[in-house]
Amino acid sequence: MADTTPAGYDPGLYNADLAPVPPARRDWTWLNMATVWMGMVHNIVVYEAAAGLMALGFSAWECLEVVAVAYIVLFLAMWFNARAGTRYGIPFCVLIRSAFGPSGAQVPVLLRGFCAIFWFSVQSYAATQAVDAILSTLISGWGSLDISFLGMRAHMWLAMALIWALHAWIAGHGVHRIRNFELVAGPLVIAIGLLATIWALRVGHGPGPLFAQPSRLHGGAFWSAFALGVTGMIGIWATFAVNIPDLSRFVRSERDQVIGQAIGLPVTALVFTPMGIITTSATMILFGRPIWNPVELLLTLNHPVITVLGGATLVLATLSVNVVANIMPAAYDLMNLMPRRLNFDRASSLVLVLGVFFVPWMWFDDAASIYQVLNVVGGLLGPVTGIMLADFYLVRRQMLDIPALYRRGDHYDGRGGWNPPALVAFAAGGVLASAGQFLPALSGISALSWFVGVATGAGIYLALSPRQLPERVNESVSPSGA
């Protein structure tokens, strides 16, 4: 790659894809932001999350209450954390240098990148199952390709290769083409979901037996499970609460990002969750048991047209969430690690390669492991969210010296590139929030791990950080397009 680093900037901290987006190129509207979120919220993991809530003992209506609280909290966290991206046009991996220092920032950036690749792998394998179902329907003898390699059969390897190729094709068209893809994919997925819901309402002659199922939780047990459910739902998107500037940097105004996220996040989630519950209710009537896995449902219905169209919808839903929520942030995080060697295209290709090494087929059906990962992720990324909010709003007072974020030895450098208050707050918050996963005596913390992480990270960071900005930062701030 040709070196286009501006004079005075460190080439180890800068490349064209990490540079602030100029105001003229911040052209995403509230509609773009809303459809991006529509595409992300409609995915297999979120669809099946309602099953996890009902397994805890909630009624269908209580599930909606849990979802409402979780997504409103997420919306508020993302609204405030997105502001720096919209105001300054910088991605998460650059913004985080303000709190952690240019070298210290690699710690949360690598954690976020790991999580993004993990979720890319999980979502892609779910889509692989859908592709396998489609090809088994269309091609006689497809399932007979049963030679096993590294724990997975040949026909699944071929289906996975096709899914990986589709991701590469979409991501290879760049960020602005991704926006156009989501403009179609998000509304299309919800339209197909509505058709499935109408079918389910006809089968069940109403919402179905799941909505008639009473709650099994009361008193203290209810509130304990409620906290656990809210934290689990937040855990699905805890990674994005951190790196929302990766998207908001392309939005033309604060108003657009707020309206777009309000429509695309809590509103869409509250529409999508009952869709999943109603559709699963219909499976209880037809098959005598609830089927929450959409791929299993397609195979059980055993109708070629439904399998092909339904499978294609699942693939589209997975592509829409993976490209924006996982490949894009992971690519930025990898670029931040090696800006001189990686641009967006190279980094996104590397994400695809690394995703294979997570071998999701080895543990995909182990729901307990996935939920444990969710809780640990929420516990570790909660402090990062708290530190970012405390740094931008209370320590920096929403004023950033953008050129200094791309230089070493400046006032964001801390001690040799590491800012001790952020590192101490991150470590303490992560340990406290995750302690319940490993120490039975502290298991109650697990129900509020993300909240504990946010509060601890923010509190310790504020206690250790100076209250006043250096005078030169205030004088040099000139946010572009603010």
TrEMBL record:
Any one Gene Ontology cellular component term annotated for this protein: plasma membrane
Keywords: Membrane, Transmembrane, Transmembrane helix
Membrane topology category: Multi-pass membrane protein
Compartments reported by the entry: Membrane
Pfam families in the record: Transp_cyt_pur
TM regions (residue ranges): 63-82, 118-142, 154-171, 183-201, 221-242, 263-288, 308-332, 344-364, 370-395, 416-439, 445-464
Molecular function GO labels: nucleobase transmembrane transporter activity
Gene3D superfamilies: Hydantoin permease
Protein family: Belongs to the purine-cytosine permease (2.A.39) family.
Name of the featured protein: NCS1 family nucleobase:cation symporter-1
Organism: Gluconacetobacter liquefaciens (Acetobacter liquefaciens)
Taxonomic lineage of the native organism: Bacteria, Pseudomonadati, Pseudomonadota, Alphaproteobacteria, Acetobacterales
